[in-house]
Design goal:
This protein has one domain. The chain contains one helix and four strands. The protein has one helix at 72-80, and strands at residues 20-23, 26-29, 35-40, 47-49. Strands 1-2-3-4 form a four-stranded antiparallel β-sheet, with no helix packed on it. A hairpin with a 2-residue loop joins β1 and β2. It is elongated and about 40 Å long. The N and C termini lie close together (5 Å). Bound molecules: zinc ion (2 copies). Residues 41, 43-44, 46, 63, 65-66, 68 line the site of one zinc ion.
Length: 87
Amino acid sequence: MCAWVDNAGDDVCRECGGDAAQEGPDRVCTSCYAEWYISYCWRCKAHIDERDTTRAADGWCICRRCGASAPPELIAEQEGEHGGGWA
Ligand SMILES: [Zn+2]
Ligand SMILES: [Zn+2]
């Protein structure tokens, strides 16, 4: 679960070096089926790779550049009502 809007370009699997299929911000390796998430920070637009990103206690990725986790509106939404459907 990550809070990053939009998504970045293609990437290569770090497990096997294979090509990744892109499904929105998600990447799925076509060889070993490793999954990860690539996107941009909603606040500072830094490139976010889930594999390089620390997660907060609530599960959101923390931006390494600006320290943002989830967008405020998403946190409010999550606290107000469960089952938002964000992967
Ligand atoms: Zn792979
Ligand atoms: Zn940021």
